[in-house]
């Protein structure tokens, strides 16, 4: 386990999430409180989740004067997420990065409003790629802005890990209605099923008789570009436009997105 040992990195992480007293913030894998302590000073409601009972006990003592902080034993993968809007500010256990991102970003009605998270460098590069490699990452990037803010060198942790880390921020993109999310899932699934096909061909089956060429052009997508090279925000833009076309029908979202 690699604990954050650079206070300026923790402070910058907290600042980048623009935490206010009105916010509810979750720190996942709180450890000794490298992030929990600066979060406590913002005055926000803070939930520090930690799996190791001894860390929970010690962090509870450290935070006992901060009435706005609750230290709760729990596992990142199963801890019940708040139902009301919340932020995540954490240096997370890297082994559960995908599981946590899936919980935060996949559900169509996730209550996550924004986040600042330290993750492994390679993971950050993958999820912030201009064109994601897979459908799941595209679903995240079409609905949220994921930005790689900075590289964090191994020396900022104790003990120093072998790999570099990254400061990542997450913000909600422009809102998508329920119908637009259904259109988006259908469009993305078609694009990632046939990533090498020109976008107009990949989309022809999902546009029910509409001329794919014209619809894509109007949404700012090159109809001849391979579907797998189109940026997720472009697909989201297309989905918003498609949702306004009352003549088109979109299947319900698959249940697994809500798990
Ligand atoms: C890399 S340390 C980071 C600790 C602290 N956030 C920091 O920056 O110093 C990861 C922490 O997450 C805890 N942890 C590991 N797996 C976890 C899980 N599945 N659920 C909750 N906590 C976990 C570990 O006990 C450890 O305290």
UniProtKB/TrEMBL annotation:
S-adenosyl-L-methionine binds at residues 2, 4, 29, 50, 75, 91. It comes from the Bacteria. One of its GO terms (cellular component) is cytosol. Pfam families: RrnaAD. InterPro entries: KsgA/Erm, rRNA_Ade_diMease-like_C, rRNA_Ade_Mease_Trfase_CS, rRNA_Ade_methylase_Trfase_N, SAM-dependent_MTases_sf. Residues 9-174 form the Ribosomal RNA adenine methylase transferase N-terminal domain. Keywords: Methyltransferase, RNA-binding, S-adenosyl-L-methionine, Transferase. CDD domains: AdoMet_MTases. SUPFAM superfamilies: S-adenosyl-L-methionine-dependent methyltransferases. One of its GO terms (molecular function) is rRNA (adenine-N6,N6-)-dimethyltransferase activity. Belongs to the class I-like SAM-binding methyltransferase superfamily. rRNA adenine N(6)-methyltransferase family. This is Methyltransferase domain-containing protein. It comes from Amycolatopsis suaedae. The lineage of its organism: Bacteria, Bacillati, Actinomycetota, Actinomycetes, Pseudonocardiales.
